[in-house]
Amino acid sequence: GIVGHHEAGAAEMVRKKMGSFVGFANLPNQVHRKSVRRGFQFVTMVVGDSGLGKSTLINTLFEHKLYDLSAPRSLANGSSMNGSANGRTVAIESKSADVEENGVRLKLTVVDTPGFGDFVNNDEAWKPIVDNIDSRFDAYLEQENRVNRSKLMDNRVHACIYFIQPTGHSLRPIDIEFMRKLHHKVNLIPVIAKADTLTEDEVVAFKQRILNDIAHNNIKIFQPPVYDLEDDETIAENEEIQSKVPFAVVGSDTFVTTADGRQVRGRTYPWGTIEVDNEAHCDFIKLRQMLIHTHMEELREHTNDVLYEQYRTHKLLSMGVAQDPSVFREINPAAKQAEERQLHEAKLSKMEAEMKMVFQQKVQEKESKLKQSEEELYARHREMKDALEKQRYELEERKRRLESGRPPTPDKTGSKKNRFGIGK
Ligand code: GDP
Question: Which of the listed residues 271, 306, 330 is the one where a domain comes to its end?
């Protein structure tokens, strides 16, 4: 009937819309292509004792010899700001490499931090690390405040791999302290270093104790978010990754030959070979999958939307309560506006007062001028009145003489006078 007809019409319209190509369906590709052209920036920080295999793991992760493990560290680093003693990292150093895979460019930066043992006083060992994270946030904040913000360099720390010593016991107080200093500022990813030095059972028990410690101390570690819309496969994949935290890792960038003759990245022991890229042997694959394959964008987003935002808000607030009101104005647009309005209003009323004064002056001038001309008028009026009075007196005088019969007194103006002697 009628309803059916209407429905058919609506459906036709929608179909037509779909049929004519608007083009926004290509938006994801556009965004993607733009990002690919620009390249991605990803900054990973590694924290943990010296000799725990941080450099080795980074090389293994990105299949890139970011660290020259064959040379003494001090020579490999080269950079003047990095100090090294006995191959140990004693200052924070960062290394970048442009890596490309299938046309996707990634600017990878690794921030290496000094091991705990390298400090004279371990109480403040976390401070330079936190300062480094903060200064990277500050650098981003500064860029955001610039007029031209088209090309922001994102050098914020997107992931922090925290290396736990393979003791098999539990977290040390210094680990807890470090994690607590870092977890509000970075995506914390705890890993058990050199997991090949523990047995399978030891790893399982150690992981559980570490997780208990983390929960007990309210330490927030990075957790891949679970979205409702995700398909079952992705959810299962994420759960699989999640189940391996803290990742038990083994690093090696050298190839070894297994008993069955395969060439693998791994470490050889008298009793066999530990393979890095074998999920049955360690969690390296899962760590790499999370960090690079499935959650790199998530890590970047969480850094931007949550961690950086927290830092920014906190920073602005702490500046807001500062004593110097000019600082407050700088960062508080409302206060700044109110003050500007006040200044403007003061200026206006001053102008108004000045105008009033000038006006009054002019009025006064005019009034006094008027008074003056009035007086002049009066004076002239009096003069004329006096002159007329005088003439009237003279006429009367003459009239009296005529009536008395005497001849009129001769006029100074002469004969041109009529008989009354009044000039025209
Ligand atoms: P960093 O000081 O934390 O950067 O540690 P390095 O990467 O320089 O490694 C220190 C030593 O540990 C080197 O001799 C590495 O070969 C070794 N190493 C690195 N990763 C592992 C690992 O997963 N297992 C074992 N057993 N040794 C490792």
Answer: 330
